């Protein structure tokens, strides 16, 4: 089985377990992730999200950029004296 087939075969439960493992540094059974496992899990998560067309606002690392219209008060320069 190649990497593409492996990622396509992951279930949503396994995907969630990988996300939780990366977030907590532990596997569901409580064991600590070994060196390099976090990186590999993160790669699998990103590949899964791309392969399974997870909406961008639900992907790991998504940052809401807010309103882009420029009408927010937050976009005004600060008047510091």
Written overview of the protein:
With 81 residues, the protein is mainly alpha-helical. It has three helices and no strands. It has helices at residues 3-9, 12-24, 37-51. Helix 2 (12-24) runs antiparallel to helix 3 (37-51). The termini are far apart. The model has no long low-confidence stretch (mean pLDDT 82).
Question: Can you lay out the helices and strands and say which pair or pack?
Answer:
Layout: H1 3-9, H2 12-24, H3 37-51
Helix pairs in contact: 2-3
Q: Give the total of beta strands.
A: 0
Helix count, DSSP H or I runs of 4 or more residues: 3
Average residue-wise pLDDT:
82
Overall radius of gyration: 18 Å
Gap from first CA to last CA: 64 Å
| Spans where pLDDT lies below 50 across 5 or more residues | none
Global shape: extended
> What pattern of helices and strands is seen along the backbone?
HHH
The SS-based structural class is mainly alpha
| Fraction in beta strands | under 5%
- What share of the residues lie within helices? 40-55%
Largest sheet, strands/sense/barrel: none
From the structure above, extract its key features.
mainly alpha; 43% helix; 81 residues; 3 helices; 0% strand
């Amino acid at each position: 089985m190649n990497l593409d087939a492996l990622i396509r075969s992951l279930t949503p439960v396994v995907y969630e377990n990988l996300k939780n493992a990366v977030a907590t540094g532990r596997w569901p059974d409580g064991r600590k992730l070994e060196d390099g496992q976090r990186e590999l899990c993160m790669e699998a998560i990103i590949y899964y999200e791309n392969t399974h067309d997870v909406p961008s606002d639900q992907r790991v690392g998504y940052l809401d950029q807010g309103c882009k219209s420029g009408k927010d008060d937050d976009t005004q320069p600060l008047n510091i004296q």
